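User: Hi! I'm working on a homework problem where we have to compare a predicted structure to a textbook description. Could you give me the structure for the chain below?
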Amino acid sequence: MKMGRRAFLSGNEAVAEGVRLAAPHVIPIYPITPQTVVVERLAEMVEDGSLKSEFMHMESEHSALSACMGASSIGARTFTATSSQGLLYMAECLYYASGGRFPIVMMNANRALALPWNIYGDQQDSLALLDSGWIQIYVEDAQESLDMVIQSYAIAENMKVLTPVMLNLDGFILTHTYELVEIPSKEDVLGFLPSYETPYKMDLENPKNMGFSCSPADYTEFKYRQHKAVLDAKDVIKKVSDSFKDSFGRSYGGLVDAYRCDDAELIVISLGSATGTCRTVVDDLRKEGWLVGVLKIRFMRPFPEDEINEITQNAKAVAVIDRDISFGYEGTVFTNVNSALAKSKTNIMKMNFIAGLGGRDISKESIRELFSDLKEGLDGKPKERVKFLSLGVDID
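Assistant: Happy to help. Predicted structure tokens:
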């Protein structure tokens, strides 16, 4: 197991360190709060020579991702970062990037969407684009942020995958919180992450047709291949995770991470930084005799359907925390989890809790409230299937 140096870093700075170690050839950027620190640190690294990359100041987020596609089309490793309204501004390009099978890695600092205007963190931005064809990862802390930048390139550039990756960090809660992080050596990362090589690029010696249009007779086949590549990423993700553990001693469980779920009757499902709070409450409730656990979804695409069903197979009730709402229906994470569970079992109770919108704190007290509601639901007391946690005002 290889050891690196330690440093006190924010989530944003941890991402920048991961990018430095992965050494992309081209970094087109457009800063937006709370992502800005990432590109500031990368600019400093390019300036001081610790990162040898072409650093491109673009006029918009749309242009930044467009430049990534152009660089990727000639076989260059690329990186960019965005957040919130900036991610939405990129929306057109997201579909081009995935349809073109460009293995771009992009960090997104999760942030609430306007209106009302809000710079704080929830996950409405990335979950709104869940169907754009990108692999989506949600990390919990700064160490996982750094490590998953490196793993993201290994996943995206795998010849079975060749799909862009969006690495999501909860805005401010994770992007601006400082933690002790282990930074691997450049040599060790180069040993783990091979240089990017692909035959699918513009080449005068071996010409390719790229970015073309097609008729209805062929379009479905292209979308099927794209879909299959994301499904094939499941095995690649597991292999990359195992290889990373062998090299650096750290593992995050692959597609999901389960905590005290083996005998749990009540399980809360979360993604991102709220998972740590859930673990603390689970430990407290365990001391009080509750059989509870927490399941962290790390990859929303490809979706870990089999893993969720296996881990929850002995549970009586499941709660899903959504930092998102599909207005007029339910949270997007809950829709996906509910669909997975419906395919394997019908007797498990499921509740959806909308929490943390616009950066509102998801407290230990609110997680306790969640578990109490689950327990009361099992006891036959009627509860809402979709509930907004910790509403501060009466809106009726």
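For your comparison, note the following. DSSP finds 13 helices and 15 strands in the chain. The CA atoms of residues 178 and 372 lie 32 Å apart. Good luck with the assignment!
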